[in-house]
């Protein structure tokens, strides 16, 4: 994956520097939006990153609702909602900082021009008059696909749970492709992931592990569909998932775990404990941070690679004005894209599995009961490690 | 030298170093996995599963480097 990401760095590096002079000069004849800058910043990074719109180019785009928690000059909090960024700007209370510029464009002719060119989608909204935005609660692309993934998981598993309630799958064999497939996955997660890593208390944590697994899996796969986005390619989503693991682990942690974390290994002399305790505490936090970044980077990286490979065609078209270069690059990068897409399908499963198994492992580390936990002697707990 | 140029350079070198590390790690991993599978073909299925998970973990570390490289590029 890293190998494949290397070409991305080149266009990305070239883009913001070279595009201003080189690309615009060479593509005077090309379509207005087909500059290097457009390809790299809009088409490649814009698709992988979060945004306030759904991009169905070349068929157009759909703007998503904006919800802003604002504080007015009197210090009162209020909610401002609009069905789209456009209507929020048309309401007259908001201006926009166009991308890469520090001047606020207040409502007027200039703002109408920006909206006509659809550049308002990439800017930062700010109140035109007094007041400030406290929190931006807008529905973004990743949020929408996260909700969609949640909805799919809920519908599928509530349906299946009702079937088990009626006895299908308990007193008789599971029926249908969906139930058989899901039962296999659930039994696998229970027997191969939860039981060995958490131990006898696994039942309590199985709902979280299963929810996390299926949400991540569905969100990952949704990200592979053209024109969509992957909710797990957002650090906020994976961060919250990892934070849930962290909280569940800490809340259910045993006294042994806390003793080990805050007082160090029982047998160690105190100078070593002074070094070990900060390391233990940092380690407990870092491994959950790594859990979040691993999933985020895998999904984000995969999306960037796919868009970069497709982007190569357009970059070639912009750099060399002959069509032959774009055709050649098109054939090669289509092959690569298909390969990476299949790899990403594999990665979608692997990452969901890796997240689940590591969550189980971290929870297991916290809730692990040592064989002689009833014996509070320091030497006894020490030998458990 | 232009700080932005240095940042792009750092991102490029970082991506290369991350590739070397990840390549070496996955190489070592598959080396041992192949050895294990050749010696005990009946355990090949288990080894494959463990190998994929370990490869995912190694790749994750490499992707941390990628995130840092991307930050260097975007913030330059």
UniProtKB/TrEMBL annotation, chain A:
Transmembrane segments: 143-161, 205-225, 231-249, 295-318, 324-343, 350-367
GO cellular component, one term: proton-transporting ATP synthase complex
Keywords annotated in UniProt: ATP synthesis, Cell membrane, CF(0), Hydrogen ion transport, Ion transport, Membrane, Transmembrane, Transmembrane helix, Transport
Matches recorded under SUPFAM superfamilies: F1F0 ATP synthase subunit A
Bilayer disposition of the protein: Multi-pass membrane protein
Subcellular location per the Swiss-Prot or TrEMBL entry: Cell membrane; Membrane
GO molecular function: proton-transporting ATP synthase activity, rotational mechanism
Keyword Cell wall biogenesis/degradation (UniProt): no
Highest taxon above the source species: Bacteria
NCBIfam families: ATP_synt_6_or_A
Functional description taken from the UniProt entry: Key component of the proton channel; it plays a direct role in the translocation of protons across the membrane.
Family: Belongs to the ATPase A chain family.
Protein name per UniProt: ATP synthase subunit a
Organism (species): Longimonas halophila
Automatic annotation (TrEMBL), chain B:
Alphabetical list of CDD domains matching this protein: ATP-synt_Fo_c
Keyword line: ATP synthesis, Cell membrane, CF(0), Hydrogen ion transport, Ion transport, Lipid-binding, Membrane, Transmembrane, Transmembrane helix, Transport
Molecular functions (GO terms): lipid binding; proton-transporting ATP synthase activity, rotational mechanism
SUPFAM superfamilies: F1F0 ATP synthase subunit C
InterPro entries named among the record's database cross-references: ATP_synth_csu_bac/chlpt (IPR005953), ATP_synth_F0_csu (IPR000454), ATP_synth_F0_csu_DDCD_BS (IPR020537), ATP_synth_F0_csu_sf (IPR038662), ATPase_proteolipid_c-like_dom (IPR002379), F/V-ATP_Csub_sf (IPR035921)
Annotated signal sequence range: none
Source superkingdom: Bacteria
Pfam families: ATP-synt_C
Marked site: Reversibly protonated during proton transport: 59
Ranges of residues in domain V-ATPase proteolipid subunit C-like: 9-72
Biological role stated in the UniProt entry: F(1)F(0) ATP synthase produces ATP from ADP in the presence of a proton or sodium gradient. F-type ATPases consist of two structural domains, F(1) containing the extramembraneous catalytic core and F(0) containing the membrane proton channel, linked together by a central stalk and a peripheral stalk. During catalysis, ATP synthesis in the catalytic domain of F(1) is coupled via a rotary mechanism of the central stalk subunits to proton translocation.
HAMAP family registered for this protein in UniProt: ATP_synth_c_bact
Name of the protein described by the UniProt record: ATP synthase subunit c
